[in-house]
Write a structure and sequence with these properties.
The complex is a heterodimer of chains A (113) and B (246).
Chain A lengths: L1 H20 L4 E8 L7 H11 L9 E5 L3 E5 L5 E4 L14 E5 L3 E8 L1
Helix pairs in contact in A: 1-2
Chain B lengths: L11 E4 L2 E4 L3 E8 L2 H17 L2 E7 L5 H12 L4 E7 L4 H7 L5 E5 L8 H11 L6 E5 L16 E7 L6 H4 L1 H6 L2 E5 L11 H11 L4 E4 L8 H16 L6
Parallel strand pairs in B: 4-7, 4-8, 5-6, 5-7, 8-9, 9-10
Antiparallel strand pairs in B: 1-2
Helix pairs in contact in B: 1-4
The chains are: A alpha+beta (113), B alpha/beta (246).
């Protein structure tokens, strides 16, 4: 359940931001979770509600976006969207695909008051 | 509570007893959630590099034989200065097994936690104070999932996979094999007693990570252990080589 410790990090980052920015309540949090980030969005949502209690983000809504993972073929250089790490290149069918995007784990933005 | 005067919902405040609106606003963050851990990991990595310490993060399922392999490795390394950080949810058993070899060890108990993080490792390094130019083995919590996502500041992640675990383990737990630089296939002495397709294990591991080095070992018989020690020495030499020579 490392989603819980990720939620602890999210809480710390939001608390820091609230001190820097002077907001007292977070209505909504947008998270970007790459499809190959080894994070399960449903577990993250569950952990979020529990971990944010008592913070400025208590009760905040969570929006999770998962932009597609992209990879470049190590053989022919084609760039394509992948679902899993070990797919073969859709162009040449030979090369393994080297991920260039898809494991991000970010707080994209906050809606605050 | 909805405001009874103008019907606004969240965001109202009272200033000098007067009703006042604060419009919700958006703050663009683009902040990496792992940035805290990665900050500590970067500090650990700088510290290791400056001291010429090769840090290896050993990961595996529970029971793959990490501790037995480590004990054998330390015995074979003899006089090479080494230190060990042991991670487990509970007990100091593993650190006790390491200390029995004469090598200093610190046990981190993660309690409910499923992985080591860079902050814990930084404190353990403070306690251990590894000698400059030494080898630091970090035995992570037995778990092929969570430790993949947490950089500890190590030079390399090393996956220990035992031959009894099934050929498809790399496909079932791809994140760990993608994050690693070396897989040690352990308990090779059991191969004659099993129906295990070694070629298939290797093919599956390379499907996930074409750059993965593979060494087949047995901590029990010593098979492949010299290759593993050679790999460690090469990694250590590379770490100490000045950047200009890269």
């Amino acid at each position: 359940m490392h989603e819980m410790s990720l939620c602890e990090s999210i809480r710390e980052i939001i608390q820091e931001q609230s001190r820097a920015d002077g907001f007292t309540k977070v209505n909504r949090v947008w998270l970007e979770v790459g499809p190959l980030s080894c994070v399960e969005p449903s577990a993250l949502r569950f952990g979020f509600d529990v971990v944010m209690r008592g913070s400025v983000a208590e009760g905040a809504a969570v929006e999770i976006t998962t932009p597609p993972a992209k990879a470049r073929c190590l053989a022919c250089g084609t760039t394509a969207t992948i679902q899993q790490r070990y797919e073969l290149c859709p162009n040449c069918g030979v090369g393994p695909m080297d991920m260039i995007q898809g494991d991000a784990l970010k707080i994209s933005k906050l809606e605050v008051v | 509570m909805m405001c009874g005067i103008c019907g606004c919902g969240e965001g109202q405040v009272q200033i000098d007893g007067k009703h006042h609106h604060v419009q919700p606003r958006e703050i663009a963050m683009e902040r990496d959630i792992m940035s805290k851990n990665d900050g500590y990991a970067g500090a650990n990595r700088d510290r290791f590099r400056n001291a010429g310490v090769l840090a290896l993060n050993l990961v595996s399922s529970p029971g793959a034989g990490k501790t037995a392999l480590l004990v054998k490795t330390l015995q074979m390394l003899g006089k090479t200065p080494c230190a060990v950080i042991e991670g487990d949810q509970q007990t100091a058993n593993d650190a006790d097994r390491i200390r029995a070899t004469g090598v200093p060890a610190v046990q981190i108990n993660t309690g409910k936690g499923c992985h080591l993080d860079a902050h814990m490792v930084g404190h353990a390094v403070d306690d251990l104070a590894p000698q400059p130019g030494s080898l630091l083995f970090i035995e992570n919590v037995g778990n092929l999932v969570c430790p993949a996502g947490f950089d500890l500041g190590e030079a390399h992640k090393v996956v220990v996979l035992s031959v009894t675990e099934g050929e498809d383990k790399p496909l079932k737990y791809p994140d760990m094999f993608a994050a690693a630089d070396l897989v040690l296939i352990n308990k090779a002495d059991l191969i004659p007693h099993l129906e295990v397709d070694m070629d298939l294990i290797l093919a599956n591991a390379h499907k996930i990570n074409p750059r993965l080095d593979v060494i087949i070992v047995s901590a029990k018989t010593g098979m492949g252990m010299q290759d593993w020690l050679g790999w460690i020495q090469a990694a250590h030499a590379k770490l100490r080589r000045p950047a200009a020579a890269e």
